[in-house]
Amino acid sequence: MCISYIVEWFQALPSSVIVVLIxxxxxxxxxxxxxxAIGVYGIDPATAYFLSVVGNMLPIIPLLLFLxxxxxxxxxARTFDHxxxxxxxxxxxRYNNSVQKYGALALALFVAIPxxxxxxxxxxxxxLVFGIKARYAFPAILSxxxxxxxxxxxxxxxxxxxx
Length: 163
Hints:
- By secondary structure, the chain is mainly alpha-helical.
- It has one domain.
- It is 77% helix and 0% strand.
- The mean pLDDT is 88.
């Protein structure tokens, strides 16, 4: 399939669908979706926030429910085994004290920090690493996404400025 065909197909989608798809993507999540929605597509901030939160949360339930079994199957391949070893060791090393002390609240605060690699996808990995059950992880991740969305939206419209 030609890249230009994919780009054409993507550009033919409504801007709201593109924003949701960007928000669903790991790493980009709503941290990229909100500024793109407001700055590129001219979507009003409230709608950009809503679309981005919905898009960011869509993959979370399947991730929380199936990440453990999928990672176990992927670990059969050496490359994935090394990747998961690295990801889980890094996550455990960096956040063990906070999670041990604050549990799901630490997970919410981690996801709420609007920096790369601190979003909902990584929050799901952290929940797996630290054994936080899905019924506790989901509201914590949702809370973090809602807070991060507010911060990113306020920054995108100029209410919050970073020096």
